[in-house]
Each structure stands twice: as C-alpha cells, then as structure tokens.
C-alpha cells in the first residue's frame, strides 16, 4: 500500500507528543518535584487527550473490510507478527529494567506479571495489545459488514457503552473504547475529510481549538488532581473526538511546512520509537537521580533533548543489525508484508 506523507508526518509528530507526555509523567510520578505537580498535570492532560486517540485514528486510516475467512487468516498472521513480536520484546525489556532498578522504579517487577501479559500488558505496551485486538475483531466483523460507515456506527455504540457503562473486563472495555477511534480514522478517509488550505481548515481547526481550550479551562477549574483515564474516562472521553478532528484537519496542512520531512521520517519508525521510548527515558531519569541531580531543568533537558537523541540513535542501531531489527520490524526479516 502506498504511503501517504501526511499520515507519516502525523505519526511522527504524535509519537513525539507521546514521548513528551511520558517524560512529564515520569517526573510527576517520581515524587521529587511536588511543587510543580499542577504544571505537570496540566501538560500531561493536554497531551493525553490528544496523542493516543489520534494514534488510533491514524492506525485505522488504511483499514479496509476483508473479503473472506482465508484473507482474514492471512490478516491475523500479519498483524500478530507485526505487533506481537515487538509486544513480547517490550514486555521482557520492561520486566528486566524493573528488576534491575529495584526500589528506584515506581512499580515492582514480578515474574507473574510477565507471564500474564496475554491478558494484562505491561506499561505502554497496552497500545500494541489493544491495537492487535482491534485489528482482529474489526477484521472479523468486516467479513460480514462490508460498509465501513456501518462498522463505524457499530463502534460508536460500543464507545458510548464504554463511557456510560464501563466494563470490569480489561480487554473488552479497551476494545469498546478505542475501536471507535480506529474506525473514526477510517471513516474520515471515507468521507474525504481533507482541507486544501488553512482558510478552509479553519472551519474545523478554530472550533476544535477553542473546544480544547474550554475543556482545559474547565478541567483546571475543577481542581483535578489526575488526568483523563484511558480505561474509564466517562463523559470526559468525548474530548478525544475533538482531538482527532483537529489533528486530521491540521496535519495535512503542517505536512507542507519546512520541518515536515523530519517528522515524516520519524513517522515511518513510530512503532519502534513507541517501544523504545519508555525504557530509555526511565533509565535516564533513574540515572540522573542516582547521580544526585535534582534540578528540574536538568531533568527536562536530559529527559527531552537527551532522551529523544538516544531513542533516535537506538532506532538507527536496531535498523542496521538484523537480529535487533527482528524485534522491532519483524516483517522486514520474515518478509510478511509492509509496516503499518
């Protein structure tokens, strides 16, 4: 399938926002900078209501209904390969780092947690786990429901249920919540949700921007001490839709800017960056604390600038060494199709 440049740009910019969110989240949860907690929470909330909903929508942009059971079987194998091996790789790395970090890490590591990743993912790998499940469930449904608009309507009902009547079953709740955004990306492509100029995009951009600003103002006025949940967001989760509409109006316009090629390149490696970013920024933060560095500005400097550099370097190394390439880009080694 031919790559669409603004989609790669969107993935590149969005994964950078994911990275920024986790840098701030790590500093907040470290408990070392409590005087800045409200500032951390504001930044985290602003990023979190945007990046993951947009990522699911970008992932669903190319989704097409499947023809029959045979095509579904090939589809399952491909998605399991592309997402499953990085998922296992991250889980092992996360477990190893937690064990090595001991009391310096926020969550203690237990072997039982690693052995239970078939039902409960570790850390940020939940996105891969849920995305894989979405591909499998919607792929199967698409054999019987060919019309993507009907599929979208089906997921919209599930989304409403997840907001109003959240389920205690982890994967089912996540599927109901995030399948909607996956299909929203596909639906926006179906209706040709595109703008050719800033002037035409402003009819969506400005209302979305002011909606997000109003949400953040109201959220802050409520004195919230937490950010919107990705499990049970309640009616607050409606703001996720605004973020997707904003991104899909904005990204094709930003793709024409001078800095676009950089993020286009990062977008092609967004899955690898997602897998590597959390362990790397955690290690950087722990090392700084062990060295006795408590200045916030140094943590931000090394965490953001240093972290992004190390992640980019690590991705380059993984791409050059076949054994490492297998863990992040298994389809390149086994030859089971192109990267999503």
From TrEMBL:
Instruction: Outline the extent of the Acyltransferase domain.
Output: 5-316
Q: Does the keyword Transferase apply?
A: yes
Q: Where are the transmembrane segments?
A: 12-28, 40-59, 80-97, 126-145, 150-169, 203-219, 234-251, 271-289, 295-318
Question: Where primarily located?
Answer: membrane
The record's listing under PANTHER family reads: O-ACETYLTRANSFERASE WECH
- BP GO terms, sorted: enterobacterial common antigen biosynthetic process
What family is reported? Belongs to the acyltransferase 3 family.
Which protein are we looking at? Acyltransferase
- GO MF term set: O-acetyltransferase activity
Where found in the cell? Answer: Cell membrane
Q: Does the keyword Protease apply?
A: no
Check the record and name the InterPro entries matching this protein.
Answer: Acyl_transf_3_dom
- GO CC annotations? plasma membrane
Q: Could you tell me the membrane topology recorded for this protein? A: Multi-pass membrane protein
Keywords assigned: Acyltransferase, Cell membrane, Membrane, Transferase, Transmembrane, Transmembrane helix
């Amino acid at each position: 399938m031919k790559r669409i440049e603004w989609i790669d740009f969107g993935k590149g910019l969005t994964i950078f926002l994911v990275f920024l969110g986790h840098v701030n989240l790590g500093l907040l949860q470290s408990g070392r900078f409590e005087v800045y907690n409200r500032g951390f929470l504001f930044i985290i909330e602003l990023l979190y209501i945007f990046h993951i909903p947009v990522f699911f929508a970008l992932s669903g942009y190319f989704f097409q209904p499947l023809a029959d059971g045979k095509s579904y079987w090939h589809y399952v194998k491909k998605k399991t390969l592309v997402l499953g091996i990085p998922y296992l790789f991250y889980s092992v790395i996360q477990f190893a780092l937690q064990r090595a970090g001991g009391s310096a890490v926020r969550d203690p590591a237990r072997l039982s947690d690693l052995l239970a990743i078939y039902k409960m993912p570790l850390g940020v790998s939940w996105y891969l786990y849920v995305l894989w499940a979405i591909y499998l469930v919607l792929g199967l449904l698409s054999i019987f429901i060919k019309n993507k608009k009907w599929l979208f309507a089906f997921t919209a009902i599930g989304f409403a249920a997840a907001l109003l009547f959240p389920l205690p079953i982890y994967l089912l709740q996540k599927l109901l919540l995030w399948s909607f955004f996956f299909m929203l990306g596909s639906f926006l492509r179906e209706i040709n949700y595109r703008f050719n100029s800033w002037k035409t995009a402003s009819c969506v951009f400005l209302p979305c921007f002011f909606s997000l600003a109003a949400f953040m103002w109201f959220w802050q006025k409520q004195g919230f001490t937490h950010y919107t949940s990705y499990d049970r967001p309640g009616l607050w989760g409606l703001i996720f839709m605004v973020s997707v509409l904003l991104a899909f109006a904005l990204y094709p316009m930003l793709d024409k800017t001078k800095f676009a090629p950089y993020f286009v390149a990062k977008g092609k490696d967004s899955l690898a960056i997602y897998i590597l970013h959390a362990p790397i920024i955690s290690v950087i933060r722990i090392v700084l604390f062990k060295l006795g560095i408590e200045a916030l500005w140094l943590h931000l400097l090394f965490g953001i600038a240093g972290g992004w550099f190390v992640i980019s370097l690590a991705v380059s190394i993984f791409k050059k060494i076949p054994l490492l390439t297998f863990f992040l880009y298994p389809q390149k080694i086994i030859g089971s199709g192109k990267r999503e």
